[in-house]
Every structure is written in C-alpha cells, then in structure tokens.
Design brief:
With 116 residues, the protein is α+β, with helices and mostly antiparallel strands. The protein is built from two helices and six strands. It has helices at 18-34, 84-103, and strands spanning 2-11, 41-48, 52-60, 64-69, 75-80, 108-110. The longest helix has 20 residues, at 84-103. The protein is elongated. 16% of the residues are buried. The mean pLDDT is 88.
Length: 116
C-alpha cells in the first residue's frame, strides 16, 4: 500500500524561476530529512497554477510501533496503521512550512496552514 497526498502553496510574488528554485530546495529537504528515515518517497511532483503551487507526493506506508517489556525474556511490539495518511500529510506540510518560513517568506505561503 502507498500513501498519496498534496500540499497547496499560495504564490505571493513570482520571480519567474520560483518553481525551479522551490522544487530544488524541497527535493533537497526530502532527501535529507524524509528519505533518511524508513519512509520511501515514490513520487514527488510539483505543479504550478495561476496563483499556487501544488506538491504531489506518494510514499510507502508509515506504520507506527513501539516496544515494551512484558517480562525480562520478551519484548512486545505494539503497531498501528490507523493514522498513516494524516502523518504523511503532516510531515510533508511541516517541511513545506519550514522551507517557506526559512527561505521563501516573501514569495510563498501555505494554503490552510496548520500550526507547527
């Protein structure tokens, strides 16, 4: 199974090469901070509309798990797949937000931003 989502970004000022620069910066962040984990990004596409950018992504499942000891000889694992899509969406939105606030504050803003 794979998870798919999108992040919508409002263009405030378009410098002409904005999409290329943002795409390059975002791919660099994904490689460094997402793909260095167990998350495999299968698709990362960028589309530009009149006043917005859309990041389309697809990644592998993101099951959450933790270990806890039942006794001295054994460790139990508890796993959940319930909120995988919300976790993936939040992760890609977080890095979009971070990138915009750090490098593209004048040019871009997230549409429907959550508080991070």
């Amino acid at each position: 199974m794979s998870l798919q989502g999108e992040v919508k970004i409002r263009i405030l000022i378009d410098s002409g090469d904005l999409l290329k620069e943002f795409e390059s910066a975002y791919r660099s962040l994904v490689k460094m901070y997402i793909e260095s984990t167990t998350i495999a990004v299968r698709i990362l596409r960028f589309e530009k509309g009149d006043n917005h950018l859309i990041i389309l992504f697809e990644c592998n499942d993101i099951p959450l798990s933790y270990f806890y000891p039942l006794n001295e000889q054994d460790n139990e694992i508890r796993k959940s797949k319930e909120y995988e899509l919300k976790i993936a969406q939040s992760l890609f939105e977080f890095w979009s937000h971070w990138l915009i606030k750090t490098f593209f504050i004048e040019e871009l803003s997230l549409l429907n931003p959550r508080v991070y």
